[in-house]
Design goal:
Structural class: alpha+beta
Number of domains: 2
Radius of gyration: 41 Å
Distance between the termini: 115 Å
Shape: rod-shaped
Strand content: 15-25%
Helix content: 40-55%
Largest sheet: 5 strands, antiparallel
Order of helices and strands: HEEEEE
Strand order of the largest sheet: 4-3-2-1-5
Number of helices: 1
Amino acid sequence: MMLKGIPDEITRLLEYKKKIIQLYLENKQKQSNWGITNSRYDQLNLIEEKRLTAMCHGQLYQQRMKKAFDKKVKPRVFREGDLVLKKVLSFAPDFRGKWTPNYEGPYVVKRAFSGGALILTTMDGEDFTRPVNSDAVKKYFS
C-alpha cells in the first residue's frame, strides 16, 4: 500500500507495526479468553469438590440416623410353641366398621424360619397352608 508523500520503506514499516499491534491485540484477547476458560475450569473443580463434600456429609448423616434408629429397635424373636395373634389383612368391608377386630387368634407357632417367616397352627392343631411374615403377628400373653 502506497501512501502519498511517504517513502516506500516507511509505509512497509507502518504496515509491519500495524500487523504487530493487531497480533498483540488478538493475543491479548485470547489470553483474556484463556483467563475466563481457566476460571471456569477452577469453578468446575470447586463444584466437584463441594459435591464430594456434600456426599460425604450425607453418608455420615445417614450413618448417624441408622445408629440412632437401631438403638431403639428391639428384634422380635418367635420360638416354636409361642402364642401369637395374626393381623387381619382383609380389605372386604365389614358391617362392624371401625370396630372390626384388627387381630385374630391366638395361634401357635409351629415352625420359625430365620428370614422371619412363621408357620402357624390353630389351637386345635390345624396347620395354615402358607407361612406368615413375622411383621404381621404379635405375641399373645395370656
